[in-house]
């Protein structure tokens, strides 16, 4: 039984899913994987099921009906993991924009004292490969906007490559996390800080996907932009009982 599990949400990731699974299982530390698939019509879940016979007991699959949002996928995954004995719970994309080798470094950061370790694109300059300059600037200044509104010092607030210690997810009332797009990532980090947990950013190199299609949309960006203000205002009227 591993003490660490990687949650990978998927929708139409047939080009990447087998390669990312095999890569994670090739690492020196024995991670488990939980794939949360939102009814991918391209057969992503079928590929995962086929691999479960190869990685028996280490590869898990939860299937949902339709696209229900990134945030709800992770909340589903968090609750699934908390019902088991995992101590370190990771978020990672399926498309190799996050280098699986960095899972080792994120876990080590938590072993050394972090409660939430963030794979950060912006803690040491801008470490993004294959993104058009417009998207780099939007992402970089979005994190600056989040810092301005929330008063936090996280350099990569929208990062989706993270490791949580179990106690963080046990403390945060997950049913009160409201956002479902990239604002979900901001809300989780902000809430983790409000509960008094230690957050550490680990520098990574982010490489844009080469297979499949991006899930970014105007609606998701708008939720993040306006959601930050709503989240900050709501925090003034909310009690955070720190552990």
TrEMBL record:
<keyword id="KW-0808">Transferase</keyword>
<dbReference type="Pfam" id="PF00535">
    <property type="entry name" value="Glycos_transf_2"/>
</dbReference>
<comment type="similarity">
    <text>Belongs to the glycosyltransferase 2 family.</text>
</comment>
<dbReference type="InterPro" id="IPR039528">
    <property type="entry name" value="DPM1-like"/>
</dbReference>
<dbReference type="InterPro" id="IPR029044">
    <property type="entry name" value="Nucleotide-diphossugar_trans"/>
</dbReference>
<keyword id="KW-0328">Glycosyltransferase</keyword>
<dbReference type="InterPro" id="IPR001173">
    <property type="entry name" value="Glyco_trans_2-like"/>
</dbReference>
<protein>
    <submittedName>
        <fullName>Polyprenol monophosphomannose synthase</fullName>
    </submittedName>
</protein>
<feature type="domain" description="Glycosyltransferase 2-like">
    <location>
        <begin position="6"/>
        <end position="171"/>
    </location>
</feature>
